[in-house]
From TrEMBL:
Residues 1-295 form the Biopterin-dependent aromatic amino acid hydroxylase family profile domain. NCBIfam families: Phe4hydrox_mono (TIGR01267), PRK11913.1-2 (NF008877). Transmembrane segments: none annotated. The keyword Isomerase does not apply. Pathway: Amino-acid degradation; L-phenylalanine degradation; acetoacetate and fumarate from L-phenylalanine: step 1/6. SUPFAM superfamilies: Aromatic aminoacid monoxygenases, catalytic and oligomerization domains. InterPro entries: ArAA_hydroxylase, ArAA_hydroxylase_Fe/CU_BS, ArAA_hydroxylase_sf, Aro-AA_hydroxylase_C_sf, Aromatic-AA_hydroxylase_C, Phe-4-hydroxylase_mono. CDD domains: pro_PheOH. The keyword Oxidoreductase applies. Its cofactor is Fe(2+). This is Phenylalanine-4-hydroxylase. It comes from the Bacteria. It is an enzyme of class 1 (oxidoreductase).
Amino acid sequence: MASPQRVEHQLTDKGQVPVYTTAVVEQPWDSYTATDHEVWRALFRRQRQLLEGRACQEFLDTQDAMGMGEDRIPKFVELNRQLQAKTGWTLIGVEGLLPELDFFDHLAHRRFPVTWWIRKPEQLDYLSEPDLFHDLFGHVPLLMNPVFADYMQAYGLGGVKAHGIGPEALAELTRLYWYTVEFGLINTPAGLRIYGAGIVSSKGESIHCLDSAAPNRIGFDLRRIMRTRYRIDTFQKTYFVIDSFDQLMQATAPDFRPYYAQLATEATIPAGDILASDTVFQRGTGEGWLTDGDV
Ligand code: PHE
Ligand code: FE
């Protein structure tokens, strides 16, 4: 494995100097085994096939455009050339989940942390923490899309701000990430499509989110989402549908401070609830839902 190498500390826009507690590592590409590459190939093949007609065209096109293929685990340095040219993002290798402020600061500087290791062959269907397949296959393609690329950076800047406000603001912002970046759906002339990384990297949820009668599918509503609890151990009870990445960008552009102040007076919403104010694409049957466990 490559020796861990610390990134340079940089001043954030808030004037803070983050002290990274987690090392950034060079992708130890030569250390991947034949089995690692085989796991990538199996997952890539399975998901790409499943996602034709399920993932939004932007996702499929950007994945192709950056040369992410099934033959072997991609090299970050090669993908970085494409990303740099297109939107100025850089992939950095990490061991796993980062402390919140570190993560936000990386995004704010257009650096996307990617877990360097890949799951084992017996974990193709489910893994409880992000690995290389989730991060790279799921999150990275849309960083080639100029609008989505800007959204991710704006989210990072918003995260640094929310972190300074307090844990409630942070929880509300995290719900937004969950229901867009991880589990978002988008409405297209051809029907609902997936753009969330947590969905595209999961076989079961790629099918469930579009085909199942169980979950709610509700139109994007920023402050409603920021109040909505979610699931980390089961498929989502509710998916939120955007009209376009431009809508996402515009809705999240205002300063969130007044929103945080107002949300502090409002109750959270259980993951499966539907409100009178919701634009409902589908009212879920709730089949198979657990009655507790919302985060
Ligand atoms: N506009 C938000 C703020 O002022 C930042 C943000 C942008 C958050 C995009 C999420 C997504 O806090
Ligand atoms: Fe993720």
